[in-house]
Amino acid sequence: MEALLPTLVMSLLLSASIVTSTETRKPVLYVFGDSLSDVGNNNYLIFSLAKSDYPWYGIDYYGGIPTGRFTNGRTIGDIIAAKLGIPSPPPYLSLSEYDDAMLKGVNYASGGAGILNETGIYFIEKLSFDDQIGCYEETKEAITLKLGRVASEKLSNEAIFLVGLGSNDYINNFLRPFLADGHIYTLEQFEDLLMNTLGGQLTRLYFAGARKVIFHGLSPMGCIPSQRAISGNGQCLDYVNDYVMRFNKRVKYLLSVLNSRLPGAQMTFADCYDSVLDLINRPEIYGFKISHTSCCNVDTTVGGLCLPNSNLCSNRAEYVFWDAYHPTDAANEVLANILFADPEIAKVHPALGRNASPPSPR
Ligand SMILES: *[C@@H]1O[C@H](CO)[C@@H](O)[C@H](O)[C@H]1NC(C)=O
């Protein structure tokens, strides 16, 4: 018995140090968002109309098959995970509560989702940001059952929370003339509603253990093919870009307020507006040829997604946009590189910024 005790203590110490060292080397990644980061959750929502489980989605993904990603290849979350040296977090709805995969990361993103519940209402079913946070709370409970409260809290505190939401609150809500929000609210009132809601949501995430939050700011949405089609002359919609800049500025301020109020919070704004605008204005600098229209020939009057009978461009890597809303795999790689080159983001976690490479040339 006397001889056994030191051995037991030794092996306990040993296993504890193994756990710590793997944690510092391999970050845990939780992804929240919309169709820009959905990796298959909506495939599990029977009534959802926001789906991409058909060709030619996924044509450049492993195996060339549709997975529920709204692009020809990888989402930005996939590429960030690869740069962090971890597997791409699986869709939440693909996991059982016993699945150990959740210890490495989970993706809660859902096509059509917004900050507001009512955003994307016509997609019938999707996980709004509130729903996604509820799913994360379930994950946290399941991890607590596996590891105990202290280890579970530590895992959450050290994990990277990548949040990318807001596009749909404009494109599939405020800017839609047949929906209520654009009529009942002025722009400023709508922004107040978004900020109050987002502030509450990020605070809820904080109390569920989130500390290292990266909020992926909005891109110049006025220049995506669906918005250029609305302009009638193929130009960017400047007022939409103005809305985006106002939104980004207010989110940045909101995060600074949350950081000052919530001890230990490290919420960071990933600003990609100028870089993406540059990519759209000067695609050739980044190895692209076309940025004003999409690779997949889409009909924006019937939704703007790439349908099985659509024609594809011959070189998908030369296009910034895949369909009327979503970047190509090649453009997502540039976006991920921009994020990794941001010194503010590198401060959030030592693994971020480690594999930064300059955004040009590919
Ligand atoms: C949004 O939905 C969530 C549950 O999905 C609910 O808890 C929340 O109260 C709703 N928010 C509003 C403003 O209705």
Automatic annotation (TrEMBL):
Residues 1-24 form the signal peptide. Pfam families: Lipase_GDSL. Keywords: Signal. InterPro entries: GDSL, GDSL_esterase/lipase, SGNH_plant_lipase-like. GO terms for molecular function: hydrolase activity, acting on ester bonds. It comes from the Eukaryota. Belongs to the 'GDSL' lipolytic enzyme family. This is GDSL esterase/lipase. It comes from Zingiber officinale (Ginger). The lineage of its organism: Eukaryota, Viridiplantae, Streptophyta, Embryophyta, Tracheophyta.
